[in-house]
Specification:
By secondary structure, the protein is α/β, with parallel strands linked by helices. It has 10 helices and 16 strands. It has one domain: NADP-dependent oxidoreductase domain (TIM Barrel). The longest helix has 15 residues. It is globular, with a radius of gyration of 19 Å. It starts with 6 loop residues before the first strand and ends in a 5-residue tail after the last helix.
Length: 332
Amino acid sequence: MSRIPNRILGRSEISISALGMGCWAIGGPFWAGETPLGWGAVDDQESIRAVQRALDLGVTFFDTANVYGAGHSEVVLGQALARRRHEAVIATKFWNLFDEDSRQITGTSATPEAIRAACEDSLRRLGTDYIDLYQFHANDFPADQALPVRDTLEQLVAAGKIRAYGWSTDFVDRAAVFAEGAYCSAIQHQLNVLDDAPDMIAFCERRSLASINRGPLAMGLLTGKYSHGTALADNDVRGARSPEWMKYFVHGQPSPEFVQRLEAVREVLTSKGRTLAQGSLAWIWARSPMTVPIPGFRTVAQVEDNAGALDKGPLTREQVSEVARLLGQSIS
């Protein structure tokens, strides 16, 4: 097995590691009313050490959003990269409005004025004068209303505020609107071995866009750390008060349906000395040369486990076929 080579970020000239680090969890708790949207308490100094360890291990791509921790993830990431900005490619997102003090989401906006203001705020929190990849964080925003958003992003490229842009969406018709833009380089979408997205992968391949993969470890389920009886904290997005869209954990415990699917493929994923997480990332790389999984982290140990997958390579074609057979998937 050989180390997985770097990717080019879609149609841009930006080189990134084939593995990214998702910075949602390091933002700490935040809420929409009483619904938790963070991953519980965090240690900022451990988060900083983890980001820097990722760089040491060859991971250069870091994905966050302005809303994660109501701005706190961007602040922590900016601190971690303060002296190493030139080594990193930073992706962040816009759409949500929030109060940084109460850590409450207060609304949403995609007006040109709101986008420009959000960009300036993210630049300030990140401590940088440019964002490499700026992403629209509205999964189901109407496609027929998205042109002004895309046009504003093109203007931000021209102004030197961002280098490229994309949309975090699971809908191909929405991705298609952005794909017509000159500097659209990526679509971020849900993808993991238990939850395939063949239509979006095929779209990204046709349009030469990076497929940035959120949820590559199924919100932690594919680490193997959670089992029936696991009790997650009330301020954890996977806990008893989780939002309606949470499907990998139900009432604060792992979903029996997804646990059953995990057990069906565990042996394949852990072949060749891989951990379960490493095998799950290896499956994603085997799905397409456009994929860039962005597993979350809160500790140095998690970063080291995930980055270890780079040295073990993708699953073989035969292993991907076996996974598909075990799960009843049809892979194009």
